Amino acid sequence: MEPQPGTWLDKRIGGAMLRTWLREKTVPVHRHTVWYYFGGMTLFLFAVQVVTGILLLLYYRPTAESAFESVQFIMAEVQFGWLIRSLHSWSANLMILALFIHMTSVYLTRAYRKPREITWISGVALLVLALGFGFSGYLLPWNKLAFFATQVGTQIVANVPVIGSFMLRFLRGGENVTGATLTRFYGFHVAVLPALTTAVLGIHLLLVQLHGMSKPSEDKSNRSMPFFPNFLLRDVVGWLVALGVLAALAAIFPWELGEKADPFAPAPKGIRPEWFFIWMFQTLKMVPAHVGVFEGERVAILGFGFLLVLIAAVPLLDTNGNRQPLSRVFTILGWVLLFYVLFMTISGYLETPVFAAGPPQAKSPADLFINDIHRQRGLTCMDCHGNDVRITAPKRTQIAALCARCHSDLNYMRRFNPQMRVDQFAEYQTSIHGMRGAQGDQNVATCTSCHSVHDIRAVRDAKSPVYPTQVASTCAACHADSKRMATYKIPTDQYKNYRGSVHAAALIDRNDLGAPSCNDCHGNHGARPPGMDSVPAVCGQCHRQEKDLFGGSPHAKPFQDLGLAGCIVCHDNHEIKKTDDRMLSAQGEGVCATCHSDDGATPKIRSMQSSILGLRLQIDTASEILGRAERAGMEVSKPKFDLEQARAELVKARVSVHGFSPNKVMEFTRPAIDITIAAHKAADAALEEVGYRRRGLGYSLIGIAIMIFALVMKIREIEGKKS
After folding, report:
1. Mean pLDDT of 379-396
2. How far apart are CA 103 and CA 105, in angstroms?
3. d(C-alpha 155, C-alpha 164), whole Å
4. H or E stretch covering 343
5. CB-based contacts of 364-371 (< 8 A; 24+ apart in sequence)
6. Which H/E stretch holds residue 176?
7. What is the distance, to the nearest Å, from the Cα of residue 111 to the centroid of all Cα atoms in its chain?
8. Helix crossing, 179-187 with 117-139: angle to 10°?
9. Fewest beta carbons within 10 Å, which of 354, 527, 693, 699?
10. What is the CATH number of domain 30-224+256-350?
């Protein structure tokens, strides 16, 4: 007798046993059955992770020098690389969301109880591993936001008692986040975590098959459905829905890449971890610095660890063996935790403070002195006030000399900082403040006017009144006081004007410490107004090229002969506005119109303006189209970079205006226009690709919808025959 087809394979894989198991396995049917599908959906999304992750491995290079570029290559050059990476990233987030939902439903229906305790514990372990995947994978593109978020996230680990320092070095591969950290995270992400997950997942699935699916204790019916094909086909419908959602997210919102990480750049605003860690991040922000005698962050970290252990141990604590309705205590605790996590996550994204701080209260000299740099260096009240601190404070005219007793003594100051200057008092004596003070003027500024009295801080302390961003407001305390300045007959609107300037916008609003404040133009301890002839030199400290061009221009000598202060003739004094191309005009708002209306210089002015405006129009047009492509999720970093080069040439062209030569301006505008034309073509091609992707999404969704419809009809047919 010849063997039947399939018999050879059946004997070796146990096919007959598998078919018997599939026919006999059933799934309980009740009002909570829908939650069962999230377990299968989590498994499906994990499978998507595995497949797309393997494809990404073919191109990814885990080094600080090439990681970002390799992901950029995947997004821009690899066929469907953008789709693979977006599917990988979106499926990771959806997998964690599905896992959260699955765990929550299991908890609230008390499906963790006997005999499923180990099933629950293995599920908690899988949740921890999934969060580990999310944390380690976040750094792999090596972009700016991920770099600094990882820096913050790993630093939190250092607060773990006893082993915190070891864990920090273990995770980072050193003291700081470097290329070694990236390589280590890559190893965790593609080797360690997958191996652990495979092992734990195997145990979890084995236990699920061994014990079956639990049903709520209040459900007294014995209704069920066959696992195959009824439940499995429903599971597949859920997988297809998840696939459709993934396809839509990947096509409409491709995962962004951002900017390459620069370890030496300042941290960008808005650093926050991934959404599944936000609630922890917000909790850490609201914990006080100290809880009793312990550090607040350390207590919070221990609290998170205790919470994890408590969640894992729930089956061992809730041991009501007779399957009574849900324990009120555990149910309440579950709902409280769920709402707390949701509230803190939403709060983190809305940047809503959980608790508002009260109004600041006035501090006594003793309280202020706690943060004083002199106290930190070992000095006390008696070093300034003498043996009897109750004696009246020194007179205003004595303060500078009192400070100079130490700050002008080279040998004394070397004890604290060998490089510290000791000529401040000598400079102060040459300043307008010092000279008026020497004449007996009690109203002028002295050391404590700028540095404060008992809360004197280091210059680099952001809370110091002489920190760069605070200097203007410190000067304004006197110079914006009309009563105080009335004696000197000088205007008091300097701070108001400065606050509306391009310099203040950069320094105060954007925290660009390279932008100038009052002391950068007027001096520090030797402060005095610059003379008319020195204005170009003062501005030239930063604007060197403009100063040199202006010095060789046809305007330099006439301005000097007329006693005009160079730069401020066109750019104003304190209220220096952002330069505008309309300034280059002999009509209307143009500053050239002040001297030129319709003379021989007008054609040159128009020629320079035409070159600059033509280039700006080209850049703006290409930028707008690139912006549309980028908002649609396209990888357009290369043409954007090229466009930045064109913008740099535009800046040079604007600077060259100070030489008042049309030919010099066109040396920069002509090559820049060629760059913008190429960027424009790349932007048009990107928008065409967007249309192609959207059409592909439409066809895919139609195909998925047809498959879902066919499966639903098949399910109805199967159940119709059985009924």
Report:
1. 75
2. 6
3. 9
4. helix 328-350
5. 365/453, 365/454, 368/452, 368/453, 368/454, 368/455, 369/454, 369/455, 371/455, 371/457, 371/463
6. none
7. 39
8. 150
9. 699
10. 1.20.810.10
| Whole-number pLDDT of residue 359 | 46
| Residues 697/698/703/707 CA torsion (nearest 10 deg) | 90
* Cβ atoms within 10 Å, residue 424: 18
What's the rounded Cα separation, in Å, for the pair 237 and 707?
8
Q: How much is the pLDDT for 713?
A: 92
DSSP string, 271-291: ----GGGHHHHHHHHHS-SEE
β-pair type (290-291, 294-295): antiparallel
- What's the pTM? 0.69
Domains of the chain: which residue ranges?
Answer: 30-224+256-350, 359-529, 530-577, 602-710
CB 603 within 8 A of CB 529: no
User: Which are the contacts of 62, defined by CB distance < 8 A and separation ≥ 6?
Assistant: 140, 182, 183, 186
SS (HEC) of 52-104: HHHHHHCCCCCCCCCHHHHHHHHHHCCCCHHHHHHHHHHHHHHHHHHHHHHHH
Instruction: Reduce the DSSP state of residue 213 to 3 states and report it.
Output: coil
pLDDT(557) > 80: no
- Partner residues linked to 26 by β-bridges: 226
pLDDT band at 353 (very low <50, low <70, confident <90, very high): very low
Rounded-to-integer distance, Cα 102 and Cα 218, Å: 20
List the alpha helices (DSSP H) in 480-566.
482-485, 494-499, 502-504, 518-522, 535-539, 544-551, 556-562
Interatomic CA distance for residues 47 and 519, integer angstroms: 62
Residue 101 phi, psi (nearest 5): -65, -45
Of the chain, the percentage scoring pLDDT greater than 70 comes to 93
> Under 8 Å CB-to-CB from 60, ≥6 apart: which residues?
67, 70, 71, 74, 140
Say what the pLDDT of residue 337 is.
Answer: 94
Closest CA to 568 of 599, 605, 594, 603: 594
DSSP code, position 143: B
Tally of residues, the chain:
723
Q: Report the run of H or E that residue 432 belongs to, with start and end.
A: helix 432-438
How buried is 718 (Cβ within 10 angstroms: 0-12 exposed, 13-18 middle, 19+ buried)? middle
Question: For residues 49 and 90, what is the distance between their CA atoms, to the nearest angstrom?
Answer: 9
Best CA proximity match to 550, nearest among 650, 647, 661, 667: 661
Give the sign of the dihedral formed by CA 65, CA 68, CA 70, CA 72.
Answer: negative
How confident is the model at residue 147, as a pLDDT? 92
Structure tokens at 530: 């610059």
Q: What contacts 24+ positions apart, CB below 8 Å, involve 532-539?
A: 532/563, 532/564, 532/565, 533/560, 533/565, 535/565, 535/566, 535/567, 535/568, 536/566, 536/567, 539/566, 539/567
Q: For tokens 């959207």, what's the residue? A: 694
